[in-house]
Design brief:
Structural class: alpha+beta
Helix content: 10-25%
Number of strands: 18
Shape: globular
Number of helices: 6
Mean pLDDT: 88
Strand content: 25-35%
Number of domains: 2
Radius of gyration: 19 Å
Largest sheet: 11 strands, mixed
Low-confidence stretches: 1-48
Amino acid sequence: MNRRQMLRAALVPTLVLGLATACSEPQPAGSTDVVDPGTPATPSASPTPSQPAAPLTGLPVASAAVAARPAVAVPIRVTPATTPVGLGSADLVYAEFAESDSLHLTAVFHSKDATKVGPVTEIRPVDIRTLGVLHPFVGYAGGPTGFLSQFENSKLPGVTPADDGDKVFSSDQTSTAALLKAAPKGIQPPPAVLDYGTPGAALAGRDLVPAQELTISVPGGPPQVWRYDAAKSTWVGKVGTTTVTAASVLVLTMEYKTLEVRKPSPRSLPSANVFGEGAAVAVSGPSSAKGKWRKPGLDKVCNVTDLNGDLLHPAPGNAWVFYVPSTAKVTIR
C-alpha cells in the first residue's frame, strides 16, 4: 500500500467531509471569480529520489537524519511594516488574521533549517489547535495567562525566552538549530497533513480552473495578493515587507470569535476556530480548485478535499494555509 493509500485508509473514515450532498453546500464566503478550465502544465519528470519524502512537503529530504527528527514551530507576528525572517525555510505556514492589520503566523520547520526565525511572538489558541497533530517543539514568547494554560494542557513541548537563559533566543529571534538542541529526546517526526500529488498530477478531480492570481480581502485590513510565477512554478506573495513563495496556497473559510484577554493586560483578540468544517479554495501550480475542509479536533489532521470528497493533491513543496473569516472575499483570476 503506498503512502497516499495509507493516508486515505487511515483518515477517510473519520475525517473526509460528508460531501455526498456537496453540490448543495454553500460556496466560499465572499466571491470567487474563475475562468474556463484549462489544461494544467505538466512538469518535467524528476529523477528518482535517493531519500524518503519529507512528510510536510512531499519532497526528498537531505538525509535520513533529517527525516527522523522532530518538527519545530514558531509563532510570528507580522504587521505591514514588519520584516519577518526564516519563512522561506518553513515547510508549512499557517496564517490567522489578527488585530491591527497584522497576521499571526504559525511557521513549522522540518525538512529545512533557518539560522534566524522571527520576530517570535506569544502563543495563541490558533497555534495550539493547529500544531496538536504535528507534535513539534515550539519556541514562543510567553502569552496571556489563559493561553499559557491552554498550551500546558495540550502537552505540546516548548520553550520561552524566560526559560532558556539566552540559549535559544536572541532578542526576538531564534533558529531551528537552537530549537532542535533544546527539544527533549523522543519527539517523533511529524505526520503528513497534505496528500501531495505526483509530477503532472492534477490538483483536483473536478472544478479545476487555471489561476494566475489569488486575492484575500478581509474587512479593515490590506489584501493578501499572491501571483503565480510560471517560470519558477511557484506562487509569490508579500508578508510585511518580505516577499515569500509557496508551491501551494490553501484558503480555509471559518468562524472567527473575539477573545477577551484579562491577564497580564486587558485586550480583545480575534481568534480563528480551526475545529469544524467549511469551504476551501486552493491554488497549486497554474490551477485552482474549490473544496471543503474538516478538522474534528486537536489531534486530527485537517483534511482538504474537492467537492466530491476526494483529497486535493497539491504540488510537492512548501505550503501556506490561510484561515479566513466568513466576511472575507476570495478572488481567483
